[in-house]
Amino acid sequence: MTDSRISRFFRNMKGKTTAFIGIGVSHTDLMRFYRQKGLAVIACDKRTREQIGPLADELEVLGITLRLGEGYLKGLSADVVFRTPGMLYGHPALAQLKKRGAVITSEMEVFFELCPCPIFAITGSDGKTTTTTIISELFKAQGKTVHLGGNIGLPLLASVEKIEENDMAVVELSSFQLISMRCSMNVSVITNISPNHLDMHKDMQEYIDAKRNVYLHQNGFSRTVLNEDNEITAGFMKEVRGELLSFSMKHPVEKGCYLGEDNILYMACGDKTIPVISASDIRIPGRHNVANFMAAICAVWGYVDIPVIEKLAKTFGGVEHRIEFVREVNGVRWYNDSIATAPTRTIAALNAFDRKIILIAGGSDKNIPYLPIGQKIVDNVKLLILLGVTAQKIEDTVKSMPDFEKSGLAILRVNSLEQAVAKANEAAQSGDIVVLSPASASFDMFKDYKERGHRFKDLVSSL
To answer: For position 36, which CATH number holds?
Structure first.
């Protein structure tokens, strides 16, 4: 049975025009859904009709008005506007639309208002996709129906009528989605915060404040999960209104999950301390993934049984493009970590292996400082292969490290991912590990990190 809030929402939308800015996957499904409801829809995109292709014809057949090309927002009139997460909330066109009385919102904001089941929302600079996936898989293993969305999974608002109150909604949220969000989640998780997306946010504080929105509007019946080892997220603890669970790799916590000296993950629950799993049981490599598992355990505690957690830890192989094992060739292991679009992610990848590796890095620039990664590369890399816009920045940082000269680290510059894989293959010997972990975005050469990762895997598979 459809939730009364959902029915009321769509009744109130009758007679109103909704504009969707950005013809992406989530908006396309949502526009189809709106047209099934008989609602007036405008699709707006700065791409031309030729760039969009046959989808433009399909949308027009559905009765959707198209506004395309450079002036796609000029003179736009609508009652409700769904912005794409990649569009800055302070964009002048949005400000003008709001001034003229339009409601500015997003798919996730409306979904949160209408969702009939508990919502688990996960954000962070690093590890949020892996943590979101672990939480989702834990609920599935417990026998729950899971609706996975946000930055990963399906557009959830388009299927909101099919969600039952006993289901679980698990969503990954970016800073771009959270910057305008004022919704209460049942459970919120922040894996960590470090400099990221500073090419899109006006400064680090705006980025931090966007992340804070995941818990700031929660009520007293909610749960918030925070990383005690991260200075920024630890500072949020005093602002939490509901139940606070924290996690730490370094020391016991008052309430939450921590890694003991005996390598066991413990859950501190008031006056009880419960052993959950051994860190060595976690199949995916890297200490950062132990932290991701602890965050997930805090999120699902009381919803998922310990044997289910233990079994998943031993079987979950990780998420595509996140230190993903590709194949072994002539004794050389190749890993795809294309998701590493920031230095902190690449540091996590370097920490995941017990020997010096061959690292392929570089890409487009997000205006993030590379200083934190310099010494780590000197200590953990035997051959550094650089490409893309950030290649010079990374090379300059590495060479400025005091131990660079005596480290024996070799640096090669290439012009393409094809050249990078070829050079790595030439240099690698049996027992070596080659990792694509760019510490940079992909937009100088690829549509996104997924396309970069798929291309890397294709190249490695053809060796």
So the answer is: 3.40.50.720
Inter-CA distances, 372 with 342, 344, 346, 439, Å: 11, 8, 10, 11
Q: Is the pLDDT of residue 172 over 80?
A: yes
Tokens matching residue 194 = 């470090």
Whether residue 51 sits in one domain with residue 175? no
- Cα–Cα nearest to 243, from 271, 215, 265: 215
Same domain, 133 and 255: yes
Q: Name the token pair of 175.
A: 């800073």
**Residue (of 358, 233, 205) closest to 291 by Cα position:** 233
User: Is 444 exposed, middle or buried (CB count within 10 Å of its CB: 0-12, 13-18, 19+)?
Assistant: middle
Give, in degrees to the nearest 5, the angle at Cα 71 between 198 and 177: 35
What is the mean predicted confidence (pLDDT) over 332-353?
A: 91
Dig out the tokens for 429 from the structure. Answer: 């010997």
Copy the structure tokens of residue 404: 């660079």
Q: What is the mean pLDDT of residues 13-41?
A: 93
Which of 315, 348, 368 represents a domain boundary (last residue)?
Answer: 315
Backbone angles phi and psi of 191, in degrees to 5: -70, -40
Q: Looking at the structure, do residues 296 and 430 belong to the same domain, yes or no?
A: no
- Amino acid, single-letter form, for residue 304: V
> What pLDDT score does 2 carry?
58
The boundaries of the domain holding residue 442 are 324-461
Entry pTM: 0.77
Contacts of 411 (CB under 8 A, 6+ apart): 383, 384, 385, 386, 395, 398, 399
Note whether 57 and 173 are same-domain residues.
no
pLDDT band at 324 (very low <50, low <70, confident <90, very high): confident
Report the distance separating Cα 374 and Cα 370, nearest Å.
7
Query: Which of 283, 315, 347 is the endpoint of a domain?
Result: 315
pLDDT digits (tens, 9 = 90+) for 417-428: 999 999 999 999
Residue 414's pLDDT is: 97
